[in-house]
Design goal:
binds fe (iii) ion, alpha/beta, 11 strands, binds adenosine-5'-triphosphate
Length: 371
């Protein structure tokens, strides 16, 4: 079993080839860093164009690196949602073209399910059920994974995701956005005093597993304004005192942003253990899970609860094709795939795209119908 995975849901164009036994034969990611710097975020029309420009090349490179041709594939897996419709379409069209031309089954993948399940490629002992925290640019999810395709949402964000808060904080602090905001804040925070700015921890009064980052973002913006930090002056040109000030904000922001996650994660583990006492693992994935501070803090939470932390390597936490191919393998094995599409679909063919696509039903303690 050999599957090609294609991912274009946001700003990375990615493809990978993975074997049924989990062997990664190739992994290619082309990121739109230049566009992010230029537009200060993802601009859908430009992102679509950038995907279209590189998709053929990225897929070809993935096949070349794996020393395979399309004829050697068993199926094509592609992210169909959630994400930007225009961007998803580029990957889905490409997947249909290959699957149609080479008579291959096609597997539509949920981007967040892929972020979670790639942990099963990394950690072979990881069986269902488990708890997973998915933290990225657009999502902040706490999920009880009962089985393949069977998920219960314990918590989500009421406004922004933590990755968005990292990205905005980085932008306001005048950091180098070519690395995306997260890594830039992580690096600068090492220089700062995390207790110097007193940000309040969000949603403490809510005894649930939901998140909110809009308020913390506002607190950070106000702190930056009150210290007269000018984002137009890049940090590389800032004075010593200005740099210290920025580093203190980065460290204080990161501490509170992650404390919020620690608190909600602890509660989610309690809820999940009541529903499924056999749970042994917490899986943390998505772009923000590549942050070492986040990993260290969550490791403490997990240990306190007698569980084990599974966190994929960095390149598998941020968007990638491997997670899509692997999730395709999991679905293919249980017969969940579509037959090869017809060759030469017209311009007007309606693809199955799901820009908004919740992962599992919502659960809240005390709401018995959710079980
Ligand atoms: P989603 O998965 O919600 O659709 P996405 O696909 O755009 O969003 P990912 O690639 O999964 O996002 O994650 C990108 C996010 O992760 C960005 O917000 C980025 O700042 C953040 N991120 C990446 N590395 C780090 C890091 N070291 N520390 C904190 N945040 C990070
Ligand atoms: Fe993602």
């Amino acid at each position: 079993l050999v599957i090609l995975g294609i991912e274009t849901s946001c700003d990375d164009t990615a493809a990978a080839v993975v074997r049924g036994n989990g062997e990664i034969l190739s992994q290619v990611v082309s990121s739109q860093a230049d566009l992010l710097v230029k537009y200060g975020g993802v601009a859908p029309l430009f992102a679509e164009e950038a995907h279209s420009q590189v998709i053929d090349q990225v897929v070809q490179e993935a096949l070349n690196k794996a020393s395979l041709t399309e004829c050697d594939l068993s199926a094509v897996a592609v992210t169909i949602g959630p994400g930007l419709g225009l961007c998803l379409r580029v990957g889905v069209q490409k997947a249909h073209k290959i699957a149609g031309s080479f008579n291959l089954p096609i597997i539509g993948i949920h981007h967040m399910e892929a972020h979670a399940l790639v942990a099963r490629l990394v950690e072979r002992e990881l069986q269902f059920p488990f708890v997973t925290l998915l933290i990225s640019g657009g999502h902040n999810l706490l999920i009880l994974a009962h089985g393949l395709g069977h998920y219960i949402q314990l918590g989500t964000t009421l406004d922004d995701a933590i990755g968005e808060a990292y990205d905005k904080t980085a932008k306001w602090l005048g950091l180098d956005m070519r690395k995306s905001g997260g890594p830039a804040i992580e690096e600068l925070a090492r220089e700062g005093d995390a207790d110097s700015v007193k940000f309040s921890i969000p949603m403490r009064q809510h005894k649930d597993c939901n998140f909110s980052y809009a308020g913390l973002k506002t607190q950070v913006r106000l702190a930056i304004e009150s210290r007269n930090i000018n984002a137009e002056i890049p940090i590389s040109s800032a004075s010593f005192q200005d740099r210290v000030s920025r580093a203190d904000i980065a460290a204080s922001f990161q501490r509170v942003a992650v404390l919020h996650i620690e608190e909600k994660c602890g509660r989610a583990i309690e809820w999940a253990l009541k529903l499924e006492p056999s749970i042994k693992y917490l899986v943390v994935s998505g772009g923000v899970a590549s942050n070492q501070y986040v990993r260290d803090r969550l490791d403490q939470v997990v240990k306190k609860n007698g569980l084990q932390l599974v966190c994929p390597p960095r390149s598998l936490c941020t968007d990638n094709g491997v997670m899509v191919a692997w999730t395709g393998i999991e679905h293919f094995r249980v017969g969940r795939y579509d037959p090869p599409p017809p060759v030469n679909e017209s311009e007007h063919f309606v693809y199955d795209l799901r820009p908004r696509w919740p992962l599992g039903e919502e659960y809240s303690e005390g709401r018995s119908e959710a079980r």
